[in-house]
Amino acid sequence: MSKPYYITTAIDYTNAAPHIGHAYEKVLADVMARYQRLKGNEVYFLTGVDQHGQKVQKKAAEVGQEPQAFVDDITKHFTALWTKLGVHYDGWAATTAEPHKKVVQAILTKLHDKGQLYKASRHGHYSVRQEQFLTDKERREDGTFGEEWGEVIELEEANWYFKLNEHVEWLKAFIRSHPDFIFPAFRANDVINALEGSGGIDLCISRPKERLTWGIPLPFDPDFVNYVWFDALVNYISFAGYLADEVGNTGLPEFKKLWPANAHVIGKDILSPPHAIYWPTMLHAMGFSDDEIPQLIVHGWWNLRGGKISKSLGNVIDPNVLADTFMPDGLRFYLMKDIATGYDADFSDERIMIAYDKDLAKGLGNLLNRTLKMANNYRSGVVKIGGYDDEVCASLRTVTAEAEAAYPTKMDSWAIHQGIEEAWKIVTAANGFIEQTQPFKLAKDETQAARLDAVLHHLAEAIAHVTVLLNPIMPTMCAKIREQLGWTLPEGFKLSDLKWGLLPDGHQLGQGTPLFPRVEIAAEA
Ligand code: MSP
Q1: 414: nearest Cα among 363, 472, 364, 358
Q2: What's the CATH class of domain 349-508?
Q3: Could you report the per-residue pLDDT of 58-104, keeping only the tens digit for each?
Q4: Could you give the 3-state DSSP secondary structure of residue 248?
Q5: What distance in angstroms lies between residue 267's CA and the mean position of ligand 1's atoms?
Q6: What pLDDT does 522 receive?
Q7: Beta partners for residue 7, in sequence order
Q8: What percent of the chain has pLDDT over 90?
Q9: Where are the domains of the chain?
Q10: What is the whole-number distance in angstroms between the Cα of residue 440 and the centre of ligand 1?
Q11: How far is CA 313 from the centre of its chain?
């Protein structure tokens, strides 16, 4: 049996409610998971929350809550949003869960036993916000540290280190010989540059308890807790069943069936060093082979007017509000259409409005409404496949077939926006087909009855095809459209089953009710 397609996302920090960037990443992974299922693959989709660390400890203290209660509250905002947006995961990785902690501790013990960890004292500049020591590389030309590091303090501290440097030569060779390790490939250069300039500093994997209590204790030194990144990265294997028998974890997938992950979907900010340097070297130190290093899918950022979206800047866009305004699938559609995976995009009220109004309401929605209205008026909603054919009909079939041939090549290479474009070629062609064939005129002429049948059939059939291609992106709306067409995806239907002839002769279409109501947006004050 083939291995399931194992897809993960970054696990979100639970120091604040989710914003549009978090939503984008989870939707992107969900779209890929649904697309893989559509191809007939078994899928395991893991996402979750990163609940330990200094940021959480600090925020919880500020609001006078215990850290666990604090993260549990914040976590609810994430799970509620994923439910609302139709993000369907198979596994939930919350790093305060006992099974995860046990695996982190078991890994630490193994690495300690193997001599991969050592204790040392270090003096230097430390960023409280990023929870890491800074080197001269992080200094600006004037010698100061940039705003992204937040408060920087001088610190002398004993800590535990992972011998990351022992694995750097292996990592460089691995990256060079595995061009698929990082997607898009151009991002691998950043990693190689970072490795060249890393200055041979090993990875600090602990924080002293006197400074940070909110973490997983080191099993061999109770004065320390594990550094949040080490803990967080392990989620990809701990929740996939790694060491399950050894630590007594149950109810998790069988690790050897899942690993390696096909895709770790992450943002560009956490590629280097965490995912491209810490993670593969950790895996290598644990004894994972080159074939067991997962692929990284690195997406870009949603910005706002060219600048960063951040809570502190007061410009956070609430995905809940957007989902309420444009419906969850309207938001999913926009987030997939207006960005190319790997690159940045600018969030814009105007563009989400255009995507909703022009593409969904006027493009797809009108096509469906007009088709159903005409079919119901002229043929009581019954699809008739007669013998009539002509060039115009043939051309709609060709557009559909070509779009369907191109769609998987786009989706397989994470170009979701181009997958949408392919589906839209059918929508545009079908709308144009109505203009060309003028069914309302054909209906008035008895001699054109066979042609009218063919036109209505082609329209309904083309829409059915669109609902298959767009299903990963807008699962709810596509199901609603199919409901109006009176058609459901047959059990076990695969993308490869998508061929002209989905609707049989005599198929009864349903009634059309507008699916994309008008949205009025109050002008910004
Ligand atoms: N907790 C770590 C990840 C640990 S993974 C083992 C973290 N959390 S985060 O909440 O800050 O970010 C979660 C994900 O959201 C990251 O992949 C990050 O790149 C992504 N995004 C955060 N802001 C974003 C945008 N404005 N746009 C797109 N994605 C962005 O990092």
Answers
A1: 472
A2: mainly alpha
A3: 999 999 999 999 999 999 999 999 999 999 999 999 999 999 999 99
A4: coil
A5: 6
A6: 55
A7: 45, 263
A8: 89
A9: 349-508
A10: 52
A11: 24
